[in-house]
Amino acid sequence: MRIIITDSYENMGLEAANIVAGQIYLKPDSVLGLATGSTPVSMYQRLAAVHKSVGLDFSEVTTFNLDEYIGMAPENPQSYHYFMQEYFFRHINIRPENVFLPDGMADDVVAEGNRYEKLIAAKGGIDLQVLGIGQNAHIGFNEPDVKFAATTHKVELDEETIQANSRFFKNSDEVPRYAISMGIKTIMMAEHVILLANGRNKAEAVYKAVCGDVTPEAPASILQLHRDVALILDREAAALLPASIPGVPIRRK
Ligand code: F6R
Description:
Blueprint: E1 2-6, H1 9-26, E2 31-34, H2 41-54, E3 62-65, E4 67-69, H3 80-87, E5 99-100, H4 109-122, E6 128-131, E7 153-156, H5 159-165, E8 178-181, H6 184-188, E9 192-197, H7 203-211, E10 229-234, E11 250-252
Parallel strand pairs: 1-10, 1-11, 2-3, 2-6, 3-5, 6-9, 9-10
Antiparallel strand pairs: 4-8, 7-8
Bound molecules: fructose -6-phosphate.
């Protein structure tokens, strides 16, 4: 694990975008794992700007998103399908046939999870997975007490997650209670992982991910066991980390 601490949300996005762009320059047909939510928006904006200014080419790139709400159709503005189009895909030259998200409308969620896993494997696995983190240290929608061995599956959202995500809805009653999410195993099988976090409300989760015990109670703590993971934080999200951590290089930018 390594940590990059930046001085702003924009610079967190810039650092993350540099890593993603580097991945694509080195391997133009990269398979990316992507996240939704507020956190990666500055990274997506930066990547779109690099595409526009110097032609960063997404034409051979394949993407798999972490999750989708169950019962949410792609054309629903609150779906993650819609979010990705809006914030990223419509600004770059990715091919629609190379974009994958779990199908929240699938009748058989178990079969959909299996289909998604097979698709990821058929594309050669995920080269670089981008993650955000929940205030309860979830990654994807893998909530506390998750089974580390799970692959893409149906999850019931925590009350804390429902409250946090209610900002995107009229009220918390409208937030779906279930989602389909890549599992911890799916995430851990990615070749490289970057986890982004900004804001003081993420500081405890970041502390648990980096310094806490590896436990299903803090799903992100499993990343301590990944062979190549970088945490890209702003100062607020890094606020509870000690100045130095044995075996974890920290770069301040
Ligand atoms: C989103 C996802 C979630 C979010 C997390 C943080 O696809 O899988 O784990 O990354 O809930 O959300 P934001 O960035 O909105 O604080």
